[in-house]
Amino acid sequence: MALEWAVLAYTVGAEAIILLLVTMPGLERLRKGVIGVARSCLQPLMAIIPFCLFLLLDIYWKYEHMPKCAGPECSVAEHTKHQKSMMKSQRNAILVIAALLLYWLLYCVTHMLVQIDRMNQQLKQLKQRHAD
What we know:
Layout: H1 2-23, H2 31-45, H3 48-64, H4 76-131
Helix pairs in contact: 1-2, 1-4, 2-4, 3-4
Organism: Adiantum capillus-veneris
Family: Belongs to the BCAP29/BCAP31 family.
Membrane topology: Multi-pass membrane protein
């Protein structure tokens, strides 16, 4: 299972970097290329959605079937192990939510920038028609 979480962590990092590049001001010359790269990355990154849903189900199943550690029969080592397991589950849930949120933001921002580019082209064409 560690490989799945590593893949998810790298995907979250890639989504964050692409989102940062798309929204970074001052890259006007590179904007079309960065948007093109982001649009071409959206379709393969869409596989992250069912992957995240599977991992959420895994977290839920592990949480529901986790042995409870309460009362005097629980040793310090068992209590520590239980707490570590809970922390890992919470960290993994945050990672899954971050992956889904970053994908959604990347999709929305890229779509918005493409729409703005189309509108700018239409405006330029209307100005040229009006000037003629």
